[in-house]
Design brief:
Chain lengths: 343, 343
């Protein structure tokens, strides 16, 4: 199961046993860049298999997750999602009421995000370990109308290499903003599963990010964005550091984490920075516009607790956490999966 | 399992318990038309979950199936596939050698079809009933360069309503061509599974159709195309008849079916017309160009055994089979799935 993590084991699986067999073609943002989405011929394209357990959890369900996860992967490239596809694998014996409840949720989030589900597939398999169903959502998007404006603003202050908000686009000095409390999604799921011996009022943060992304692009100055899902912000920051060939310094005290999540993590021996989120945004922005972008995020529904948490520094590929007592430690990407099957 | 068939039970599942919950948006070819792909803003878009059992079978494997199935769904709309996405759900304990063999196969077919796999996702679940893995492939495509020319040729002879090769595009008199032997895929899988008590040399027909589709469009005159996968040609013809509000008459003697497939079907009590194919094309073409299109199909690698099998007639939504002894019977779409988990 560790391979399913989004951490180092998953990287190894993909780098060694999947990607080498797939031929490379000249593509704007290809598979090999391992960004949130690919870009081909101006079309942004992404896919996600959702194997969440349980199907329903405080704050959401597999349906809302499947829509938001995919919409967000398109949005963080600097794009507006224009359509989704949904492939269902259903286990025999799944109650029709459960299926309908999930489809209703997908429909509500399709309505909310204004992204139509235009095509699909449905397969039935024998009862096994799927918890009833797997939903694979894919989405396509077009360049946001505001992306060029956004990049122009950034270019007032420094050269920008990528024309999309890719992981390799950070430079020394860029400011890193987190849109809100981290770890809620993973802890909400864990506390709801049987056998973990604790309860909490933590709700999943599952939410679409396409609106707040557009607002940020209208202000301008963002050079990269990610939604810190599998592997949490520990994974996000390490992706940025290694692909942009920079260092990243983050102040631990600035990272927004709620008390219940902090307590649950201590109880379970988990690092909240390695836990997946489903409605959070991490933005890298040129320092001159950072406060303005922070303001716009805080005005949005999902961004009331947004904070500037750190910045890009010299240094090749390392993420350093400055602790509250003045220490410094390396923040590694998670090796396995601290919380399996949360997305 | 009957719900997984592509027949009437699956229609009922989708029509009653899935589609009604998904909001409708104004889209060129929407979800509700249930075509092989959707079209949004000029982009052709499709998705397929592949739950085939076993993963490897005579003539192919889940990897070749996942690429061809999705490439073909784009092609039959009159489009050229430009990119694929691949989402893997792997069961714990899956041997790395098996994964690599499947990925190598996907890579080979990506190379062969010249369609890059540009984005993906990988999840791991507990061991269950998945036979090791499920692959959901999605693809996007652009309007074929030859589609307008193709429609212009058809319009020399009659009005054409849809600008894509959709299921509702047939009119009385259109000629129906099948590109080759039917039923091979399903029978190859069945004969390879344990416990069916028979063996055969039948190989799956899994093959990409994008090249032959382009050749047909260069000739012109085609009004609709489908690849008769789940539910076989019985399903394909009924989709056409009901959506185009026409009758269809097919001559049983003209339908190409190999002796081993015919024998296996007799032994198992299966109708070869209801069995899924993975490398066959069914084309509806204006009668004046039918022989020319047949010629082009026969020149292609996959079309040596192509035949004109019937035509569109007056009558609302019925498919009639003219049997070899001069009788007539209604060809119904399959109710459940004659052969589950073949795609």
């Amino acid at each position: 199961m560790g391979h399913g993590a989004g951490g180092e084991m998953m990287h190894e699986l993909i780098d060694s046993h999947i990607a080498p067999f797939l031929p490379a073609f000249p593509v704007e943002v290809p598979l090999r860049s391992f960004d949130d989405s690919a870009v081909v011929d101006g079309i942004v394209f992404t896919t996600d298999a959702h194997t969440v357990k349980p199907l329903f959890f405080p704050g959401g369900d597999i349906g809302s997750l499947a829509v938001c996860g995919t919409v967000n992967d398109i949005a963080v490239m600097g794009a507006r999602p224009i359509a989704m596809a949904s492939a269902l694998v259903l286990e025999e014996g799944l109650e029709i009421e459960v299926l309908e409840r999930v489809m209703r949720s997908m429909g509500e989030y399709s309505e909310m995000t204004k992204v139509p589900i235009v095509t699909g597939d449905t397969k039935v398999v024998e009862k096994g370990a799927l918890e009833g169903m797997v939903i694979t959502t894919s989405a396509i998007g077009r360049r946001s109308f505001h992306l060029d404006h956004n990049l122009e603003i950034a270019e007032k202050y420094r050269k920008v290499s990528s024309r999309w908000l890719t992981d390799d686009n950070l430079k020394e000095g860029d400011v890193i903003i987190v849109s809100g409390m981290l770890g809620d999604h993973g802890i909400a799921l864990l506390s709801f599963r049987e056998g973990y011996g604790f309860e909490s009022d933590v709700k999943s943060d599952v939410a679409p990010l396409n609106e707040v992304v557009e607002s940020i692009l209208e202000v301008g100055g963002a050079v990269s964005m990610k939604d810190p899902t599998r592997g949490g912000i520990a994974n996000t920051l390490n992706e940025w550091a290694s692909k942009s060939k920079i260092g990243i310094e983050v102040e631990e005290a600035k990272i927004p984490i709620s008390d219940p999540v902090r307590n649950a993590c201590e109880l379970l021996g988990l690092d909240p920075l390695s836990i997946g989120n489903e409605g959070k945004l991490v933005v890298a922005v040129v320092p001159q516009i950072a406060e303005e972008v922070l303001g716009v995020i805080r005005e949005s529904k999902i961004g009331k607790k947004a904070e500037i948490v750190g910045r890009a520094t010299k240094g090749a590929g390392r993420v350093v956490l400055r602790t509250e007592v003045g220490g410094r430690r390396i923040l590694e990407p998670p090796v396995g999966d601290p919380v399996p099957r949360i997305c």
